[in-house]
């Protein structure tokens, strides 16, 4: 692989948030690089700054937050440290897709699913008609394994199960063909079988199109099974990162050792997928 394969290059990203009790520093200067075709797993205990990292890159944090970085580059496309609000809106969806932990938080409760596909496409493509949008939406829903997509399109978010809603969110997030996906614990709250289905689906989508993904998860087994690279965060910092095999087989940081020690079958899963 050469440097030309780099899709996302983040250097020294820091986030501070003003709170009534003072300033907190959830992210303290981290680096993150993602190459084409690669799935990078971010893991670390609750509160270590995983979601804030992603939201900082995507500029989805509230106005009480400050994001600084030496570099946030969507390589060959945009310098995200300089992008304005409109430019970021254009980039999100079109170049970077986002699948969040809670699918219902990403879906609009008062628009039909069909309308959500239409609004998304209208915002990014000039001249897309409702008929064309519906055709694309049906194709996308079928692509994420939804049987009877017409019924889903005509319905609303509250009519969907958690697993179905997450499929719809994945379909929406990939409709415009972004080269990079951020998935922040996309299967939390779903039962184990559905979790595996969703992770298989999303990783297939990424691999098939030679896209890239940043996958945040608590689950070391998931990282071992789906990711080529692992980034371990602790207290707002990256304490370890590298090839998944190196991190799993030869963890350097005590926190990573502890994580791996608590998941006895991680090595086994690793050997199955390699
Ligand atoms: N708006 C906010 N106001 C105050 N503190 C915040 C805010 N957002 C995040 N934090 C703090 O920043 C830290 C990192 O939060 P973050 O949500 O990024 O963690 P996480 O690693 O994603 O955790 P989890 O695994 O539970 O999702 C936490 O200590 C959190 O309390
Ligand atoms: Mg989180």
Notes on the structure:
The chain is α/β, with parallel strands linked by helices and 274 residues long. 42% of the residues lie in helices and 26% in strands. The chain is built from 12 helices and 11 strands. It has a 6-stranded mixed sheet, sandwiched between helices. Strands 1, 2, 4, 5 and 6 form a 5-stranded antiparallel sheet that branches. Helix 4 packs across helix 5, helix 5 packs across helix 7 and helix 7 (162-174) packs parallel to helix 8 (192-208). The longest helix is centred in the C-terminal third of the chain and has 17 residues, at 192-208. 40% of the residues are buried. It binds adenosine-5'-triphosphate (ATP) and magnesium ion. Residues 17, 19, 24, 26, 44, 46-52 line the site of adenosine-5'-triphosphate.
Q: How do the strands and helices of this protein lay out in sequence?
A:
Elements: E1 6-19, E2 22-35, E3 39-43, H1 50-58, E4 65-68, E5 71-74, E6 78-79, H2 85-94, E7 96-99, H3 103-106, H4 113-124, H5 130-143, H6 149-154, H7 162-174, E8 180-184, H8 192-208, E9 212-216, H9 220-226, E10 229-234, E11 237-243, H10 244-249, H11 254-261, H12 266-273
Helix pairs in contact: 4-5, 5-7, 7-8, 9-12
């Amino acid at each position: 692989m050469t440097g030309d394969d780099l899709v996302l290059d983040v250097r020294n990203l820091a986030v501070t948030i003003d709170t009534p009790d003072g300033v907190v520093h959830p992210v303290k200067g981290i680096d993150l690089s993602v190459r084409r075709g690669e799935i990078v797993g971010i893991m670390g205990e609750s509160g270590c700054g995983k979601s804030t990292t992603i939201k900082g890159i995507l500029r989805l944090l509230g106005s009480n937050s400050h994001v600084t970085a030496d570099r946030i580059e969507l390589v060959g496309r945009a310098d995200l440290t300089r992008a304005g609000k409109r430019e970021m809106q254009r980039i999100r969806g079109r170049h970077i897709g986002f699948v969040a932990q809670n699918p219902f938080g990403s879906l609009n409760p008062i628009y039909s699913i069909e309308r959500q596909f239409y609004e998304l496409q209208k915002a990014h493509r000039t001249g897309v008609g409702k008929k064309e949008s519906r055709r694309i939406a049906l194709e996308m829903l079928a692509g994420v394994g939804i049987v009877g997509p017409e019924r889903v399109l005509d319905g609303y978010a509250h009519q969907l199960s958690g697993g179905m809603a997450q499929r719809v969110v994945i379909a929406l997030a990939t409709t415009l063909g972004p080269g990079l996906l951020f998935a922040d614990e996309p299967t939390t709250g779903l039962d184990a079988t559905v979790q595996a289905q969703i992770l298989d689906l999303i990783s297939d989508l990424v691999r098939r199109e030679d896209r890239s993904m940043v996958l945040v998860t608590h689950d070391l087994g998931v990282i071992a099974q789906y990711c080529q690279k692992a980034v371990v965060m602790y207290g707002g910092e990256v304490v370890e990162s590298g090839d998944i095999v190196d991190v799993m087989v030869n963890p350097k940081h005590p926190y990573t050792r502890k994580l791996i020690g608590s998941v006895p079958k991680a090595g086994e899963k690793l050997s199955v997928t390699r």
